[in-house]
Design a protein that fits this description.
Blueprint: H1 3-8, H2 10-14, H3 20-32, H4 34-55, H5 61-70, H6 74-78, H7 83-111, H8 114-127, H9 140-150, H10 159-164, E1 166-175, E2 178-187, E3 190-198, H11 206-215, E4 218-223, E5 226-233, E6 236-242, H12 246-255
Antiparallel strand pairs: 1-2, 2-3, 3-6, 4-5, 5-6
């Protein structure tokens, strides 16, 4: 497991929310990688600090609550017996809101990165190949035919637009256990990876699935040093990852959506 993927899972790892296999892989990585180990320790200290602050009652809080209640006059004082339950209830409510907000923020941060981190790793693996070699090349029609045979009859791509791209090739690629079509082209002399996967395979990427459900058919995030965007179309998800702007990536993947 590479550093990018490990760091995208750190929050869930620290909360013991990952599968045993993934937890073991991350633990092994942390033993060998000092940078990631330091990042995990820093994240753990931050969480501990936040929890401590949430659970710590500021000095004088209880007295201020009592003073506010008693300032209401005789009626408030006659009902003062209820303050024994009121203070803990207010504190518990505030704590619940704070913890829920923190959890949602951390979960949302992780959700932005699961599919993005996975395809960014596959993109970097491609860049590490000698001469950026990939086995499948040719016109748009031949590439579409290949992926329909090798991957899924549901594979769709605008073959005409792909033929116009400065394409470097493509192949079937495993992304976090999911078979995807991986095509590579150049945009402003920079390699850009385009992935296609079936919408049914999004169950392997719950973060991306949740964001698509809440935001519509298009999602975007940064996964440094790259930009990531994905567009749902015709039962598939077309994903782009590479350097450059979001606008460039989005224009590319939208051009590859098949007509109709």
């Amino acid at each position: 497991m590479d550093c990018r993927k490990v760091r995208s899972y750190l929050s869930l790892y620290l909360d013991s929310e990952l599968s045993p296999e993934t937890t073991f892989d991350i633990s092994q990585h942390l033993e060998e990688c000092e940078d990631c180990r330091v990042a995990a320790e820093r994240e753990g200290k931050l969480e501990a600090l936040l929890k401590a602050r949430l659970l710590d009652e500021e000095s004088g809080d209880a007295e201020r609550w009592r003073s506010a209640l008693e300032s209401g006059g005789p009626k408030a004082r006659r009902r003062n017996f209820s303050s024994h339950w009121l203070y803990p209830a207010i504190a518990a409510g505030l704590l619940l809101v704070a913890v829920t907000t923190l959890y949602a923020w951390r979960r949302g941060r992780h959700q932005e990165l699961d599919l993005a981190a996975a395809v960014a790793s596959a993109h970097e693996e491609f860049l590490g190949r000698p001469n950026h070699a990939y086995s499948i090349s040719g016109t748009g029609d031949s590439v579409v035919s290949y992926f329909q045979r090798a991957l899924s009859p549901g594979f769709r791509l605008n073959a005409g637009e792909w033929s116009e791209c400065a394409h470097l090739g493509g192949n079937v690629c495993m992304v976090q256990g999911v078979r995807t079509a991986h095509l590579v082209c150049e945009s402003d002399a920079e390699p850009v990876s385009v992935f296609w996967l079936s919408v049914s395979d999004l169950s392997s990427f719950p973060g991306a699935a949740a964001r698509l459900k809440s935001e519509g058919t298009y999602i975007h995030c940064s996964v440094k040093p790259y930009e990531f965007c994905a567009q749902e179309a015709g039962g598939g998800l077309i994903v782009g990852v590479g350097r450059g702007s979001e606008e460039q990536l989005r224009a590319l993947i939208e051009s590859l959506i098949p007509p109709g």
